[in-house]
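okkk here we go again. third time trying to get the S-adenosylmethionine bound version out, last two times i messed up the smiles copy paste (missing a bracket lol). double checked this time i swear
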Amino acid sequence: MNEIEKYFDEMAGRFDDYYADRNASIFDRLVHSLLREPGMKRRFDATIELLGHVKGKHILDAGCGTGVYAIYLSRLGASVCAIDISEGMLDRTRANARAAGVELAQILRADLMQHSFGERFDCVLAIGVFDYIPPWRQPEYLERLMSLTKHSVIATMPKLFTPQTPLRKLWFVGKRAKLYLYTARRVRSLAAQAEANCRFVNCGPIWTVEFTLGTRCSPSC
Ligand SMILES: C[S@@+](CC[C@H](N)C(=O)[O-])C[C@H]1O[C@@H](n2cnc3c(N)ncnc32)[C@H](O)[C@@H]1O
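finally!!
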């Protein structure tokens, strides 16, 4: 079991609280409202807008966590393959899908870098995944995700320069997972290495980035 898997297994029971704003202590509520909430809501709205009409589309939710995106998109008629390395997170995905009366096309416990999908998807989501990928592995992650799509990858990248950065960094001191932050230049460089175009949507402390198949980063990015 790697450190990311352990980290998310341990936090699986609390992860939905971040979306529902059900944080236990006053300290947790403060951390949530300062550090997580400003980006989580905006990245969700930005992702849904970038996806457009999803009915009948085949979507890979890579690093699906507790299934928030996978369940929402399945409800809209998409066929969603949800993959996560953490069994704890997938237990929550199954329970949440059951509670919502939604059936996901596929739920896979696997490392997205190693699993053989045998197909390409209309779109691949990687929401909240790049936060935990060390710089030397970031190019292979984006290249891998691009290889799994017919059109686009929508990924979120936490910004390096934000007022919340020192606090966010502090929050991760002593945690199993490390947090990695991005400059726009770094994101463009990753896109160029993956031969992708990229489009940024500003979501406060985060960018939601649409990477499309191509040969260079578009002027708008
Ligand atoms: C911060 S959570 C985000 C969950 C969900 N996408 C969301 O935004 O609500 C990141 C998830 O990515 C998963 N993950 C990270 N690296 C992975 C990998 N290589 N293969 C599969 N899942 C991975 C973690 O286990 C975790 O559940």
